[in-house]
Every structure is written in structure tokens, then in C-alpha cells.
């Protein structure tokens, strides 16, 4: 008969494409001359919803032929009973194996007509009743009869579980059991089968006296975790007391019986594997695990659970191995061993199957299970809440307790359950053990599989295509999260912490803190108690982080200060949702944060107000690789968007804080060279001035409805040289020029108001490092006007300018405001700072005398001149005055010397042959070292400082920042500093005073 058409009276309307479909329907009594017969429409609708309608209909026809007398009763029951209809159509449209069982066991379909009883006792009762000989109470049937009875009873109960699992696909009003319910039922059934098989084995071997031999069956793997598949090997371990030969015969007989009747029993997880004794005593197991067991064996024991035989002996076994399991993470290379095991398992999957392997492939079930088990074994030592043998329960606990992010745990659980459901449906087809997803070319198999899961076709895709897309999505998600969790660097760090140290508030913890180098262990314990108080998720994550953090802080110069800073930062950021998640998930972030907190007092102050920088610690390229020009552009744009002056300055401060912290972190971690640090700090200061000036000018212009003057800001000193440090002020000059039709007086008044507002706004006290604008280098110093016109500057320098002002102008550069005005100012001062013919001898001597006076008068009382980075011997002033003297003498004839950069000028001096290359190298090394040490000292102390610490933890911290290890004597750093600056000072004495 040709394939059915899809007319109103055609079986094809119900998804039936078999050429004999109408013949089967007529024989069943469900089809008349023109279509559905009588009240059979519900049956045909159910058939259409089954995963494979043709398979279901052929199976019904086989049932009709095998039970001709009972068929009318079954056909009528299908019409009126939705429970039976949904369950039976679901089973017959999915599983050929269960259809075979129904056909060969008349009447078994009746067990699907009512709600089933699925508790453990009912399974055990049914199976044991099947194998007990009615003629001999308490005695098992003979060997062959018992196995056959057990097989039939087991398969019947498996049919009930499958029918309950599939019924909702066909009849929507039926409840859909969760994946967990199905696996628990399958596990309970398997346990009952083991118990029944052990009864049969005892009857066979006539070992009814339990005092002769005590045998306990320990479930492992999926059975131990109560998460069996429809077709699974059941992993077991046998432990016995008494006659081991009898116990071994019992174990072998039980394995044979269950294997013949129900499922394979695998005892390969026992000590020494298949080469080891099948049965051991409790002492034998203990001795093996204490001396010989490998890492993977403890991982397997995580799921160990007694399920049959002597219950007390089983409990004793679990009590013995439990402590070993939860201390296994202390083994050397434990984390690496588990990770290597997963990679080894993955390599065994043939390359052509790796994308289809549900269990062992990339993104498969093992990815989830290995990740969960590793997290459990590492963190479960001190947290009993996560010690579940069930993968799903353990994953939920890991998420609830903070070891895994909530979203990650939820996504991983969803994807794991999806793959397990796919695995179940694949196995139900023929009741064979398989983990291979169908090939994408097998459209028919994919369609049936998709429909059995409840996946429907989309608007433009078949159900099979939707299933393939879902499978790939879940596999990719599992692999991504597996790599995130399984290879989390924090795991190795936590595993290396002794178990006792994970109990953070014990007396032993205080002793360990003292041994680690904490000067005030009692104070440290108070911080720990505050951070871990309560039962919140936040406290749980802190409890997991702190043992590692304490070890990391112990390697820093100031562990106590670092822990206090960590507490302050944590309390300040307790409402920041991602803060602890980043620390938990990014091992590199924890390591770098610990170093920063235990080294610097400035970083934690900034971090509490710029927490977003914390997220950059895991990515050195983002932390250290930002282009200063791009940073400046972003800052100016952000300031422009603000609605008022205060908001604009607040935005500028916020972005400066962010950038200062970013640069400080990169600097401390050795990710930025000192010149890059200075350039970045200078760039952000310039951007702050640019944004603030533009905002104030716009505000004043709006108030007056006109602009009275163009204004430029000229950077001086370190700002002009792009050589700012963390504690540097911004030396600047304000220059203005009247707009058309405005006289000089009104222009200066307008510009002075703008300049004063800028200075006050930026100088307002705040918790951030100060934004101090210094205008003391202007003509006449503090006594002179804050702002002058360009003509006024020109006239002043021409008539009254002194040599120190020419020297100061060597570092002048335009940084903000009107560009044309700024460029004309620079052109105006070039002849003053680069005087034609250079300095005469008189003015050169004046420069030398000024340096000597400054060094004498400004050196702080009691300061060590060999350790003062600014005014000390070979320090910043020595090098800069020397460079500037040569610029005053020779820049008029050497354009390369016309630079505001100290290192750039030193290079030009060497290239021009004015100073020996060895001497400029010595000067450059000293200047860079002094700059770096000055920055490091400020970062360590949290405030401006020019004196290198001579002793104590601050000295150790500065030395660490400079690259010395914790094992090095900080005195070596001081010696190296003095040696470098001494060489530079010798050069200065020779070329500055004798040049």
C-alpha cells in the first residue's frame, strides 16, 4: 500500500506513515470506513504525540496478536484511562525493548493503569516475593527459576519507572517526574535487586547463618550517588568478616545472578582493581587505603554507600573511609592528579566520536562530575554541607555555600540534567548501555529522540534540528564552566592548606598564624571572625577564601596590615555583588590582591572607592596596557557629560582615582616601567585640568552670556615633563588673552575668576590623594597675579626675568585650554629658556649657588642625605639641576636638548657628545631609581614621602616592590640604592660644578 496521504480520513493526519497503518488501526478497532472509530480519537491523538507513532502502533498490533482475548479490555481501557494511555503510548513509542517485554509477558500492561508505588520497600517487596519459593517459606527458588523470576520482576518495575517518565510527553495532564526522581527510583530498584540476588546466592550456597560470614555490599559510582541510568553497570565493593572464602563465593554468586537477571555488576573499583581480591576484611581495606591507594580511588570513594548485606559492617566501612576521603586533598599533587585523570579519560575517546560522546567527551557528563568532585574534595574537608554523594545535590550545595557562583551552578545543573535525560532516552530505545548522541545525518533517530524528550519543531527547524542545537549549547556551556571550575587556580592553593588550618577560629589557627609571621594572631582571628560571622553566602565564600588569603598575606611584608585592609575592603564592598565572586573564581586576582594589600597602604584606600579595578587584576594586559591618550579622552568626555560644576569635578576625581589605582596596582606588580607610570599619572592629571577648565569656562560664559578671554594652562615642573609621581602637585601657569572688544583688565578678571574656581574645586579636601594645583612658579611667585596676559608675560620676562625663572620654564608645555594661545606662549618663552649664546659665566655660577643653597636649606632636619630621593646625594634634584644647566648652556644650538623630559635630555647630551655616555647612563639610572623608589615609598606608606625607609616593614615592602624577594635582606636594596646614587653624585660633582 502506498504511503498514506494527509487527508481528513488518513492515518497520516496522526503522524502515522507506515504503509500498513490503516490496517493496524482497523484490526485494533480504532478505525472505521472513513476514519477514527467511535471514541478512539483520544487514542489516535495519543499515538500522534508519542515519540515514534509508527513504532507505537506496530507494538500495539503485536500486543493484540499476543493477547487476543485480553485485547478488547486493553483497547477499551486505552480509550477511557488517560494514565494507561499516556504511559503505554509513551513506552511503546520509545522503547522496542520494553515493547518486547510487554509482548512476551501477557498482562504486564495492567501495572501501568494506576499510580505506581515507588518507595524502596515496595521494590524490595516485589523482587523478594518473586524469588521466594512458595513451597518453602523463606527459601529462594532454584537457581534458574529464581534468576528468571528476578529478571521478570525487575523488568516489570523498570517498565513502571519508564512509563512514569514518558507518560507526560503523550498525555499533558500527567505529572512530569524530575530527573532526580527518575534516577532515585532507578537506584532504589537496583538496590532492591542486589538485596534479592544476595538472598538467592545465600540460598544457593546454603549460608543462611549470618554469624558464619558477614558480607556488606558497598555501592559506588552512580549507584552510590543515587543517580543511576536505565542501563548502568552498578559499581560495588565487598567488605566481609568471618570466612572470606564463603564471602567471596557469595559475592561472585550475587554478581552472576544480578548480571544474568538485571544489570552488570562491576567490582573493578576495589583495592588493586581487577587484580585484587574480590572481598577484603575491613582491616584489609583500611590498610590498603592508608598505604597504597591512589588519588582517583579516594575520588571514587566519595560516592561509597552501603546498600545490601550486613548494614552494621557497611556503616563501619563508611566510617573508616570517610575520614580518608575528606583528607585526600592534602595529598601531594592532589589537584594536579585529578586534573590529569580527567585529561587521560578524555584522550581515550576516539576523535571521530568526541563530539557525540555524552559521557566522556568534551562538554560531557564527566566534565560536570569531575569538577563537582574536585570542588567537594578540596572544600569539603572543612564544610560538611557539600559532602553529598549526588552530583546534582552536591552542585546545589556548592552553589548555596558560595564555592560556585549561583548562575554557574544553575546553568551547570540544567545542562547536566539535559544530557542525562538524553542519555536515558537513548538507553530506553533498546535497553542497551550507550552514551553516543545520534549522528546529525540520522534525521529519523533525532526526531524520535527529540520527541521523547518533549522537544517540538520550531517555526523553521525540525524537532531534530532543535535537539542538535540544544545539545551543542549545553555541551559548550558544560565545557566552559568545567574549565572555569576544574582548573581554578584557587583549588590548588586551598588544597595546599592543612585541614586544621581551614578551621579558622581554633586555638591551633592562632598558633599557625603566629608561625606564618602574623605579629598579632589574636587580632587576625578577630578579623577572621568578623569576616566569616553568620550563615550567609558571603560568610561561606569568605570561609573558603581566607585560608588561602592568610597564606598569601603571610608572604607579604605586612601580613597583619594586609588582613586588616582586606577586612576594610570587604566591608566596604559587601554590597558589591561581584566582589567575592571574582576572588573565588579568579585565582590570579586573589594572589595579586594579597600582595597589594600586604604591601601598600594607598591601594586599599583607593580600592574601597574604585572596586572595578579589582576585576582587572586577573588580566595584566588590561591592567597595564591602557593608552594614556585614550584614558585622557575618556575622562574629558565623562566630565563634559556632567550637569554641573560639582558633578563634573566628582566625575574627574572618580576617573582619576580609578586610573591612579590601576597604575598603582600595575606598578606594584611590576607590570609597568617607571617612565610609563609617570606618563600615565601625568596624562590623567592633564585630563583632569582640561575637563575642569572647560567646564568652568563654559559655566562662566553662560553666566555672562559671552566669553571675555581665551585661557591656556601651561604645565611646569614634573607635570610639564610628564614625570609626575603619586604624591606630586600640579605646577601650572595661567595665561589669558582678551577676546575681541574686551580690554585687558576685564579679560584678566574673567580669567582670574576661572583660574581661582579651578584651583578651589580641585583642591577641595577629599578621601583621595590631594589634587593640589600649585601656581608658585608664576612671575613674582605668590605675590604676583594668578593670571597674566600673554603680553604681560612677555614684558615681565624681558625686563624682570631671573635665571631661576628661565630654568623653571625649561619644563613648560601647553596642557589645557586655548591651543593657539598656548602655542604662542611657548614660542614667546623659547628665547628666554634657550637664551642665544647660552648662559654667561655669571649666570651659570648663580645656578650653581642656587642649587647648593636649595640642597642645604630644604633638606629636612635629621634626614639621611644618602636616602633622600629628592634632595639627597645623587637624587632627583642632583640629576635635574645638572640637566637643566646644560640645557641653559647649549639648547640654543642643539634642538634635541629642547625637551621637557629629563631622560630625553640626558640622551640628547650623550648623542651630542657634551657628556660622556657612561656619565649620562649613571645619571639616568640614578634618576629612574630615585623616581621609582619615591613612588614605591608613597605607595607603601600611603602618603607623600621623599625619604627611603631605613628599617622595618616599610623598608621590606619598598624592597619587594623594587623586585627583591622576601628571602633577600632589605639591606641589599639600601646598599644598591646608595651605590647607584653615589655614582651619579660623583658625576654631578664633576660636570655640574666644573662644566
UniProtKB/TrEMBL annotation:
<dbReference type="InterPro" id="IPR023057">
    <property type="entry name" value="GlnE"/>
</dbReference>
<feature type="domain" description="PII-uridylyltransferase/Glutamine-synthetase adenylyltransferase">
    <location>
        <begin position="849"/>
        <end position="991"/>
    </location>
</feature>
<keyword id="KW-0548">Nucleotidyltransferase</keyword>
<feature type="domain" description="Glutamate-ammonia ligase adenylyltransferase repeated">
    <location>
        <begin position="591"/>
        <end position="825"/>
    </location>
</feature>
<dbReference type="InterPro" id="IPR013546">
    <property type="entry name" value="PII_UdlTrfase/GS_AdlTrfase"/>
</dbReference>
<dbReference type="InterPro" id="IPR043519">
    <property type="entry name" value="NT_sf"/>
</dbReference>
<keyword id="KW-0067">ATP-binding</keyword>
<feature type="region of interest" description="Adenylyl removase">
    <location>
        <begin position="1"/>
        <end position="490"/>
    </location>
</feature>
<keyword id="KW-0460">Magnesium</keyword>
<feature type="region of interest" description="Adenylyl transferase">
    <location>
        <begin position="498"/>
        <end position="995"/>
    </location>
</feature>
<dbReference type="GO" id="GO:0047388">
    <property type="term" value="F:[glutamine synthetase]-adenylyl-L-tyrosine phosphorylase activity"/>
</dbReference>
<dbReference type="Pfam" id="PF08335">
    <property type="entry name" value="GlnD_UR_UTase"/>
</dbReference>
<dbReference type="Pfam" id="PF03710">
    <property type="entry name" value="GlnE"/>
</dbReference>
<keyword id="KW-0547">Nucleotide-binding</keyword>
<comment type="similarity">
    <text>Belongs to the GlnE family.</text>
</comment>
<feature type="domain" description="PII-uridylyltransferase/Glutamine-synthetase adenylyltransferase">
    <location>
        <begin position="338"/>
        <end position="486"/>
    </location>
</feature>
<dbReference type="InterPro" id="IPR005190">
    <property type="entry name" value="GlnE_rpt_dom"/>
</dbReference>
<keyword id="KW-0511">Multifunctional enzyme</keyword>
<protein>
    <recommendedName>
        <fullName>Bifunctional glutamine synthetase adenylyltransferase/adenylyl-removing enzyme</fullName>
        <ecNumber>2.7.7.89</ecNumber>
        <ecNumber>2.7.7.42</ecNumber>
    </recommendedName>
</protein>
<comment type="function">
    <text>Involved in the regulation of glutamine synthetase GlnA, a key enzyme in the process to assimilate ammonia. When cellular nitrogen levels are high, the C-terminal adenylyl transferase (AT) inactivates GlnA by covalent transfer of an adenylyl group from ATP to specific tyrosine residue of GlnA, thus reducing its activity. Conversely, when nitrogen levels are low, the N-terminal adenylyl removase (AR) activates GlnA by removing the adenylyl group by phosphorolysis, increasing its activity.</text>
</comment>
<keyword id="KW-0808">Transferase</keyword>
<feature type="domain" description="Glutamate-ammonia ligase adenylyltransferase repeated">
    <location>
        <begin position="87"/>
        <end position="316"/>
    </location>
</feature>
<dbReference type="GO" id="GO:0008882">
    <property type="term" value="F:[glutamate-ammonia-ligase] adenylyltransferase activity"/>
</dbReference>
Amino acid at each position: 500500500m502506498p504511503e498514506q496521504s494527509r487527508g481528513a480520513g488518513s492515518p497520516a493526519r496522526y503522524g502515522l506513515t507506515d504503509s500498513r497503518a490503516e490496517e493496524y488501526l482497523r484490526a485494533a478497532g480504532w478505525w472505521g470506513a472513513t476514519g477514527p472509530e467511535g471514541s478512539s480519537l483520544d487514542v489516535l491523538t495519543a499515538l500522534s504525540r508519542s515519540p515514534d507513532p509508527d513504532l507505537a502502533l506496530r507494538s500495539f498490533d503485536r500486543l493484540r496478536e499476543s493477547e487476543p482475548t485480553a485485547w478488547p479490555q486493553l483497547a477499551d481501557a486505552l480509550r477511557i484511562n488517560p494514565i494507561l494511555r499516556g504511559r503505554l503510548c509513551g513506552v511503546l513509542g520509545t522503547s522496542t525493548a520494553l515493547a518486547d517485554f510487554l509482548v512476551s509477558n501477557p498482562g504486564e500492561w495492567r501495572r501501568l493503569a494506576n499510580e505506581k508505588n515507588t518507595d524502596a520497600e515496595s521494590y524490595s517487596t516485589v523482587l523478594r516475593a518473586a524469588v521466594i519459593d512458595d513451597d518453602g517459606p523463606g527459601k529462594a527458588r532454584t537457581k534458574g527459576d529464581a534468576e528468571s523470576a528476578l529478571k521478570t520482576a525487575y523488568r516489570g518495575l523498570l517498565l513502571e519507572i519508564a512509563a512514569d517518565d514518558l507518560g507526560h510527553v503523550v498525555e499533558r495532564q500527567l505529572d512530569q517526574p524530575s530527573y532526580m526522581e527518575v534516577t532515585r527510583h532507578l537506584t532504589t530498584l537496583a538496590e532492591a535487586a542486589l538485596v534479592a540476588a544476595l538472598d538467592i546466592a545465600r540460598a544457593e550456597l546454603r549460608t543462611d547463618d549470618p554469624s558464619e560470614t558477614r558480607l556488606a555490599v558497598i555501592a559506588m559510582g552512580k549507584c552510590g550517588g543515587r543517580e543511576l541510568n536505565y542501563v548502568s553497570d552498578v559499581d560495588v565493593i565487598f567488605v566481609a568478616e568471618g570466612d572470606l572464602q564463603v564471602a567471596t563465593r557469595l559475592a561472585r554468586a550475587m554478581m552472576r545472578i544480578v548480571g544474568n537477571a538485571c544489570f552488570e555488576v562491576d567490582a573493578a573499583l576495589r583495592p588493586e582493581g581487577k587484580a585484587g581480591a574480590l572481598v577484603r576484611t575491613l582491616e584489609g581495606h583500611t590498610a590498603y587505603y592508608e598505604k597504597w591507594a591512589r588519588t582517583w580511588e579516594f575520588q571514587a570513594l566519595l560516592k561509597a554507600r552501603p546498600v545490601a548485606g550486613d548494614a552494621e559492617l557497611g556503616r563501619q566501612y563508611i566510617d573508616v573511609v570517610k575520614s580518608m576521603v575528606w583528607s585526600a586533598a592534602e595529598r601531594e599533587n592532589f589537584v594536579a592528579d585529578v586534573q590529569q585523570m580527567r585529561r587521560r579519560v578524555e584522550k581515550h575517546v576516539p576523535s571521530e566520536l568526541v563530539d557525540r560522546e555524552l559521557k566522556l567527551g568534551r562538554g560531557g557528563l564527566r566534565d560536570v562530575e569531575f569538577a563537582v568532585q574536585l570542588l567537594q574534595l578540596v572544600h569539603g574537608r572543612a564544610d560538611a554541607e557539600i559532602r553529598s554523594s549526588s552530583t546534582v545535590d552536591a552542585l546545589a550545595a556548592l552553589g548555596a555555600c558560595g564555592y560556585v557562583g549561583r548562575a554557574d551552578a544553575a546553568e551547570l545543573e540544567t545542562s547536566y540534567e539535559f544530557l542525562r535525560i538524553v542519555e536515558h532516552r537513548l538507553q530506553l530505545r533498546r535497553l542497551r548501555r550507550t552514551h553516543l548522541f545520534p549522528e546529525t545525518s540520522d534525521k529519523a533517530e533525532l526526531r524520535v529522540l527529540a520527541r521523547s524528550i518533549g522537544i517540538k519543531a520550531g517555526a523553521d527547524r525540525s524537532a531534530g534540528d532543535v535537539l542538535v542545537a540544544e545539545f551543542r549549547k549545553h555541551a559548550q556551556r558544560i565545557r566552559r564552566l568545567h574549565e572555569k571550575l576544574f582548573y581554578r587556580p584557587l583549588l590548588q592553593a586551598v588544597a595546599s592548606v592543612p585541614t586544621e588550618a581551614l578551621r579558622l577560629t581554633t586555638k591551633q589557627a592562632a598558633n599557625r598564624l603566629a608561625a606564618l609571621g602574623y605579629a598579632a594572631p589574636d587580632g587576625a582571628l578577630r578579623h577572621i571572625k568578623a569576616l566569616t560571622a553568620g550563615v550567609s553566602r558571603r560568610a561561606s565564600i569568605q570561609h573558603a577564601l581566607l585560608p588561602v588569603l592568610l597564606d598569601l598575606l603571610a608572604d607579604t611584608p605586612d601580613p597583619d596590615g594586609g588582613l586588616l585592609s582586606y577586612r576594610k575592603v570587604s566591608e566596604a564592598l559587601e554590597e558589591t555583588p561581584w566582589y567575592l565572586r571574582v576572588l573565588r573564581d579568579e585565582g590570579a586576582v586573589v594572589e595579586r590582591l594579597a600582595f597589594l594589600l600586604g604591601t601598600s597602604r594607598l591601594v586599599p584606600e583607593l580600592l574601597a572607592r574604585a572596586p572595578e579595578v579589582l576585576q582587572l587584576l586577573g588580566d595584566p594586559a588590561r591592567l597595564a596596557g591602557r593608552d594614556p591618550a585614550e584614558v585622557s579622552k575618556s575622562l574629558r568626555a565623562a566630565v563634559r557629560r556632567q550637569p554641573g560644576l560639582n558633578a563634573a569635578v566628582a566625575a574627574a576625581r572618580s576617573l582619576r582615582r580609578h586610573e591612579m589605582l590601576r597604575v598603582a596596582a600595575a606598578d606594584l606588580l611590576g607590570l609597568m616601567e617607571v617612565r610609563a607610570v609617570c606618563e600615565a599619572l601625568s596624562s590623567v592629571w592633564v585630563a583632569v585640568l582640561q575637563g575642569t577648565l572647560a567646564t568652568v569656562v563654559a559655566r562662566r560664559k553662560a553666566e555672562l552670556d559671552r566669553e571675555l578671554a581665551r585661557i591656556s594652562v601651561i604645565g611646569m615642573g614634573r607635570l610639564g615633563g610628564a614625570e609626575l609621581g603619586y604624591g606630586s602637585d600640579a605646577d601650572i601657569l595661567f595665561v589669558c588673552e582678551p577676546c575681541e572688544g574686551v580690554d585687558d583688565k576685564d579679560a584678566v578678571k574673567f580669567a582670574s575668576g576661572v583660574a581661582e574656581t579651578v584651583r578651589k574645586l580641585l583642591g577641595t579636601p577629599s578621601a583621595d590623594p590631594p589634587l593640589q594645583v600649585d601656581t608658585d612658579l608664576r612671575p613674582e611667585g605668590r605675590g604676583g597675579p594668578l593670571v597674566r596676559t600673554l603680553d604681560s608675560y612677555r614684558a615681565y620676562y624681558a625686563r624682570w626675568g631671573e635665571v631661576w625663572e628661565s630654568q623653571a620654564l625649561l619644563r613648560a608645555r601647553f596642557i589645557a585650554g586655548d591651543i593657539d594661545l598656548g602655542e604662542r606662549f611657548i614660542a614667546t618663552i623659547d628665547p628666554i629658556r634657550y637664551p642665544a649664546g647660552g648662559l654667561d659665566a655669571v649666570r651659570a655660577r648663580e645656578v650653581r649657588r642656587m642649587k647648593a643653597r636649595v640642597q642645604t636649606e630644604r633638606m629636612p632636619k635629621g634626614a639621611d642625605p644618602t636616602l633622600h630621593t629628592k634632595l639627597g646625594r645623587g637624587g632627583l634634584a642632583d640629576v635635574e639641576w645638572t640637566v637643566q644647566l646644560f640645557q641653559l648652556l647649549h639648547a640654543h644650538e642643539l634642538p634635541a636638548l629642547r625637551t621637557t623630559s629629563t631622560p630625553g635630555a640626558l640622551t640628547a647630551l650623550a648623542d651630542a657628545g657634551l657628556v660622556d655616555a657612561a656619565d649620562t647612563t649613571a645619571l639616568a639610572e640614578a634618576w629612574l631609581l630615585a623616581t621609582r623608589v619615591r613612588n614605591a615609598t608613597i605607595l607603601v606608606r600611603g602618603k607623600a614621602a621623599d625619604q627611603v625607609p631605613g628599617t622595618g616593614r616599610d623598608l621590606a615592602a619598598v624592597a619587594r616592590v623594587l623586585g627583591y624577594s622576601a628571602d633577600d635582606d632589605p639591606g641589599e636594596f639600601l646598599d644598591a640604592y646608595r651605590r647607584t646614587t653615589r655614582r651619579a653624585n660623583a658625576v654631578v660633582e664633576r660636570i655640574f660644578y666644573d662644566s
